[in-house]
Amino acid sequence: MDRITLFGLFAVAAMLVFYALEHRSAWFVFAFAVACVLASAYGFLSGAWPFGVLEAIWAVIAFERWRRRRGRQP
């Protein structure tokens, strides 16, 4: 496995873990958004630009979800 593939594996695995933990804290939503950014970077670096674009969109959605959820918590 090359470095790009390992980076992609890490990014997607982080997305999975943080998505599963989102109900615990708004910070896991933030971590999911960051993992989406990493997965987007992987998509562009590996030449799979449609994957990169979709993950970037997911990152924007997740950051918005984090912003809203953070505002609701005391």
Care to describe what's here?
The protein is built from three helices and no strands. Helix 1 runs antiparallel to helix 2 and helix 2 packs antiparallel against helix 3. The protein is elongated, with a radius of gyration of 13 Å. The termini are far apart.
List the helices and strands and how they pair.
Elements: H1 3-20, H2 26-46, H3 49-72
Helix pairs in contact: 1-2, 2-3
Secondary structure category: mainly alpha
Q: Give the number of helices.
A: 3
Mean pLDDT: 94
The number of distinct β-strands equals 0
Put the structure in a nutshell:
With 74 residues, the protein is an all-alpha fold. It is 85% helix and 0% strand.
Keywords:
74 residues; mainly alpha; elongated
